[in-house]
Design a protein that fits this description.
This protein is of the alpha+beta class and about 350 residues long. It folds into three domains: about 1-50, no CATH class; about 50-225, P-loop containing nucleotide triphosphate hydrolases (Rossmann fold), CATH 3.40.50.300; about 250-360, no CATH class. Helix content is about 25%, strand content about 25%. The protein has helices at about 25-30, 40-45, 55-70, 85, 90-95, 115-130, 145-160, 175-185, 295-300, and strands at about 70-80, 100-105, 135-140, 165, 205-210, 215-220, 250-255, 255-260, 265-270, 275-280, 285-290, 315-325, 325-330, 335-340, 345-350, 355-360. The strands form three sheets. Strands 3-2-1-4-6-5 form a six-stranded mixed β-sheet, sandwiched between helices. Strands 7-10-14-13-16 form a five-stranded antiparallel β-sheet, with no helix packed on it. Helix 7 (about 145-160) crosses helix 8 (about 175-185). The radius of gyration is 23 Å and the shape is elongated. The termini are far apart. The structure holds guanosine-5'-diphosphate. Guanosine-5'-diphosphate binds near residues 106, 168 and 173.
Length: about 350
Amino acid sequence: MHCIGCGAVIQTEDKDGLGYLPAGALKKKLENGDELYCQRCFRLRHYNEIAPTSLTDEDFLALLREIGQHDALIVNVVDIFDFNGSLISSLHRLTGNNDVLMVANKRDVLPKSLKVGKLTAWLREQAANYGLKPKDILVTSAKNQDDVEQLMEAIEHYRRGRDVYVVGVTNVGKSTLINAIIKNASGADDEVITTSRFPGTTLDKIEIPLDRDTALIDTPGIIHRGQMAHYLAPEDLKYVSPRKEIKPKTYQLNPEQTLFFGGLGRFDFISGERQGMTAYFDNELNIHRTKLEGATEFYEKHKGELLAPALVNAKLVRKEFSVKEKSDIVFNGLGWVRVPERAVVAAWVPEGVDIVMRKALI
Ligand code: GDP
C-alpha cells in the first residue's frame, strides 16, 4: 500500500517516518474504500481549512536566517512577468553560503520568440544588479510538463543529497510548481497544496520527502508590499497573473500623449521624437490612448468605467524618467512599456507599488 500523495509505503509504526498513518485511520480508510494518504499528505490536502495568514517582513527574514543555518539548496522562485517585484535582495546575506537555484517562472506569459539563452543572460545581469548571484538560473512554466521535469532534474543535480528549501514572495507560482513536482513524482491527480490567485495563502512550512533522510520544504511567501496585486479587487487579479502569452502592443506616440492601462496605471510621453512604444500587459487589459493635457481630469471622470478595472483604496502617483537607451519602464507586476530611445516619460502606479526603469528585456 502506497500513499497516493507522496508514493511512500504506508506504515503505522514510525510516527516520524515516511508514509506514517495511525493504525486506526488506516483501518477506517480501508473499510470505507477511501484513497490512502499518509498523515503528512493528508494534512497538505486539508490545507484549505486553515485560516489564511501571511508572514510579516520580520518573520520572513527570520525564516531566511533559519534556512541559512542549514546546509541546503535554496530554490528561489521568481516571476518573470514581475521580475523586479519578486526578487529578494537580502537572500544571500541571510542564507549564508547556501547555493541558490533561481527558478524564473511563468515563461509561458512572455512572447515565444524570446530565446531562453537571451532571457537567462538578461535575468542573470538583472539579478546581479540586486546583488544576487545564483548558482544557476532555470526558466520554467509551471504549466509545462517538460519544464517541471527539468526543474526536478536540476534540483536533484544541485542539492547533492541535501534538503531543499523553496522560497519566494507570494504569487510567483511556487505552490503551482511544487504541486506539479508532487504530481510528477507520485502520479497523483489532485492538487495537493493550495494554489490561489490570492497573494499570501501559502501558510506553513511543509515538507515533502525526497528520500529517507531529506525533504523539499515549501516555505510561506512574504506579501511583498510593492506588488500590484494588493491594490486590485479579487476578480481583477487576472491582470497580474496572465494565463496566456502576452501580445505586445506598439503605439506610435507623439510627445504629450498618454496611455492608460485600465484604471491601474498611466504612462505619459512628455518629450522626445515621435516613436513606437511597446506595451507588455495582459491581453485583456484595456489600453486607452489620450492627450497628456487633461489626462488627470480624464482619469478622475472615467476610472472604473472606460478606464476599468479600478484601483482599490489607492491613488496613482507619478515618477518621471529620462530614458537614454532602449529601456523598459516597469509597472511592477502589471507589465511594462519599452521605450526605444531618448525620451522623457512619466509612469503612474498606485502609491506603494514600485516603478523601475531597467535595460529592455526584448
Ligand atoms: P504562490 O503564492 O507563489 O504559491 O503562487 P501560486 O502557485 O498560488 O500561483 C499564483 C498565480 O500564478 C496563480 O493564478 C497560478 O495559476 C499562476 N501561475 C503559477 N505558475 C504559472 C506559470 O508558470 N504560468 C502562468 N501563466 N501562471 C502561473
